[in-house]
Specification:
The chain has 696 residues and is mostly beta strands. Strand 33 and strand 34 form a beta hairpin. The radius of gyration is 28 Å and the shape is globular. InterPro entries: ConA-like_dom_sf, Ig-like_fold, LamG-like, PKD_dom, PKD_dom_sf, Sialidase, Sialidase_fam, Sialidase_sf. Belongs to the glycosyl hydrolase 33 family. Pfam families: BNR_2, Laminin_G_3, PKD_4. This is exo-alpha-sialidase.
């Protein structure tokens, strides 16, 4: 069963009955007629909070619009006062995480922000250039359970102030920040709600055009309230289809809301209905029943489904604090020539910071990602950073020994294959490097034995770095080898192609870079630097070879038009020049690395398929999703969620058995590996036609 955040959220409206999903294995089953389902219990509505909210949003509404609310006059106080209210579940984690903000990112610009920082909840504003806080210690609150927040921007007197309450308890005066002179706050920023990150849930978000008082706040809290009682009832309907409903009782007789997690990644918010599983196995079905005051009961029942089990599995590859490293970041993976999976990561010695003592480390899997071996150090730059690694397997390299004689396999044929790994040695952070205070050098090593041993380190900086620049970064994740028929016609078949980025002249930012590529046509002996994508603010790029021989660069996007989308640039001459850069409207994203990979190609397999993975969200690093395109990235018609929770960098690989693998950061404390097949990805709508696979 794959890892996911349980969305035990409270949704007031009861949606229509659950709909069944596609069944692949019911040709020989008899479908039983549905039983007559009981109706949900009739209850009295709970009158929670004042009824004069200008706007309100349930968690279901927020999820449907990707946790972003388009700017509206009701969301700013103008020259007056305003209040906002919401119920929340906060995870039991340390550090800083946002909840709701309108502008005011990191407190630097006008707007307001609700966030938690090490067990302190803050309500912060910047109005007329003055920052002001209200804050409250919430260390005694039970994590992963419902609580209520009210925040007020009070400009009703000559001295403005911030006010907040949690569960009816107000932050006392000595906890509040400086007062401010009332001024106009009317920003054009949308509201960003951080939903699902590390299990955080926001629900029933309301905006008021006035100051809420203690008496108003008290109407959100009912301390004598009792939680409802619930059990799960289910009945098999034949095949993989089941009927579900809840046996519900609430001591106060109030209206309930319901949230089902069917154990296979499917969730519903109805009282009852049918669900059809795609695969056999045991599923932990959960039902969360919540009353209007957010007293909640979560019950669970195991349901056994006959049939072929799900091909999906997850394994943990790197875990923070494991071995010599406090933190592991930046996943990179390839399949070597013997079928082994090699997972690379930055091993950060003392913290998760992007600079300092960092090594390139590797783990190996010989069973398609089910288990992983020991952590091996591959590159070390003393107490400085060896980082930003990119790797490719050169399947055409003719292996020779130290004397230049061919190395033969058991059949007397010359062995082929070479791993080429490139990374940066950095003696400062990216901003110091970009501004010339520090430097990054491009380093290279190779392996003839699938990563068991490695060659001596070579410095290839002068060959691959843009002249007179200090900044250079290979792509995060795998590089590629060109193999199309068109590449053979054009004399570049077998080219090792690395996408890259650098900081343009006068740019001191580590983010606003320009992308390009460098390559080798002689198995990494010599290197050529291609053209830059001039005038575009891009970085963290991966390349994919299109079926027609063109190369597509898919980039992290800092262009003015980015609109939470990936940027795409195509070269028709293998990186010598580029066409225009466009924003891909179908690939929504926060600013984070992503991964793109060729799965199948029509001249070798049965059809063209491209894969893409990233946190598909506009409100933060969450919702890791794998997409697939049948038309070379023109559209992405297949989409499957890996987790609704927090997620960050990732890298795709194709296993020896043609299953798909994804190495990804859960953005909490692990780098995980997910493995699945085409049937799982497409919900049974597509499968590889093995009889159409052709020799290269």
């Amino acid at each position: 069963m794959y890892k996911k955040t349980i969305l035990a959220v409270c949704i007031a409206a009861i949606l229509p009955l659950m709909m069944g999903c596609h069944d692949n294995d019911d040709n020989h089953t008899t479908v039983k007629p549905p039983i007559e389902l009981p109706k949900p219990p009739i209850g009295i509505p709970g009158e929670v909070g004042p009824s004069d909210a200008l706007q309100s949003f349930t968690s279901a509404t927020l999820l449907n619009q990707d946790n972003q609310i388009v700017d509206h006059n009701d969301f700013d106080p103008g020259t007056g006062s305003m209040s906002l209210s919401f119920f929340f579940k906060a995870p039991a984690i340390s550090g800083t995480h946002s909840m709701i903000r309108k502008g005011n990112q990191f407190g630097a610009d006008e707007g307001y922000n609700v966030f938690i920082d090490n067990k302190i909840i803050y309500f912060r504003s910047k109005i007329g250039g003055v920052k002001s806080d209200a804050k409250l210690n919430i260390s005694k609150l039970k994590p992963d359970s419902w609580h209520h927040f009210v925040g007020v921007i009070n400009q009703d007197s000559a001295t403005g102030k911030m006010e907040l309450w949690v569960d009816g308890v107000k932050a006392t005066e000595n906890h509040e920040g400086p007062s401010f002179t009332p001024a106009e706050l009317n920003t054009s920023n949308d509201i960003i709600v951080t939903q699902n990150e590390s299990g955080q849930i926001i629900d029933d978000l309301r905006f008021f055009g006035r100051v809420l008082t203690q008496a108003d706040v008290d109407t959100f809290v009912k301390k004598s309230n009792q939680a409802p009682e619930a059990t799960i009832i289910y009945s098999p309907l034949g095949g993989k289809k089941f009927q579900f409903y809840g046996n519900i009782n609430d001591p106060e007789g109030e209206v309930m809301s319901y949230w089902w997690d069917m154990g296979d990644g499917t969730t519903y918010s109805s009282f009852s209905g049918e669900h059809e599983y795609q695969y056999g196995g045991k599923y932990a079905v959960k039902l969360a029943v919540t009353d209007p005051w957010r007293a909640e009961t979560i019950v669970e029942k195991s349901v056994e489904v006959e049939g072929k089990p799900s091909p999906y599995f997850e394994s943990v590859v790197f875990k923070h604090g494991e071995g010599a490293y406090a933190c592991y970041r930046i996943p990179t993976i390839i399949k070597s020539g013997n079928g082994d999976l090699l997972a690379f990561s930055e091993g950060r010695v003392s913290s998760c910071a992007d600079h300092g003592d960092i090594d390139v480390v590797m783990k190996r899997s010989t069973d398609n990602g089910k288990t992983w071996g020991n952590t091996n150090q591959v590159a070390d730059f003393g107490n400085k950073a060896a980082q930003n690694m990119s790797v490719v397997y050169d399947e055409f390299y003719p292996q020779v020994d130290a004397d230049g004689a061919a190395i033969l396999d058991d059949n007397g044929n010359q062995k082929l294959g070479l791993i080429v790994l490139v990374w940066n040695n950095a003696n400062g952070n990216e901003h110091d490097v970009a501004s010339g205070k520090a430097e990054r050098r491009a380093m290279l090593i190779t392996s003839l034995d699938h990563g068991v041993t490695w060659s001596a380190v070579r410095d290839i900086t002068d060959a691959v770095r843009v002249p007179d620049q200090k900044m250079h970064i290979p792509p995060t994740g795998h590089a590629i080898q060109l193999t199309t028929p068109q590449a053979k016609t054009d004399g570049v078949h077998g080219r090792l192609f690395f996408a890259a980025q650098y900081s343009p002249e006068g740019q001191s930012s580590g983010a606003y870079n320009e992308n390009y590529a460098f390559w080798s046509d002689d198995h990494g002996e010599t290197w050529v630097r291609g053209a830059q994508i001039i005038g575009e603010s891009l970085n963290e790029v991966q390349a994919v070879e299109l079926a027609n021989g063109h190369v597509m660069l898919n980039s992290r996007n800092y262009r003015p038009t980015w609109g939470n989308h990936r940027a795409v640039t195509i070269s028709e001459d293998y990186g010598v020049s580029y066409g225009s850069t466009v924003d891909d409207d179908e690939l929504i994203t926060p600013r984070v690395a992503a991964t793109i990979l060729r799965y199948t190609r029509e001249d070798i397999h049965d059809k063209n398929r491209l894969l893409f993975a990233n946190p598909a969200s506009t409100s933060g690093r969450q919702n890791m999703t794998v997409k697939m395109s049948y038309d070379e990235g023109e559209s992405w018609t297949v989409s499957k969620n890996i987790t609704t929770g927090s997620a960050a960098y990732s890298d795709l690989v194709i296993q020896q058995d043609m299953n798909i693998g994804l190495l990804w950061e859960d953005n909490v404390d692990e780098i995980r590996y997910s493995s699945f097949d085409l049937d799982w990805l497409t919900k049974g709508e597509d499968a590889l036609e093995l009889n159409k696979f052709k020799n290269k």
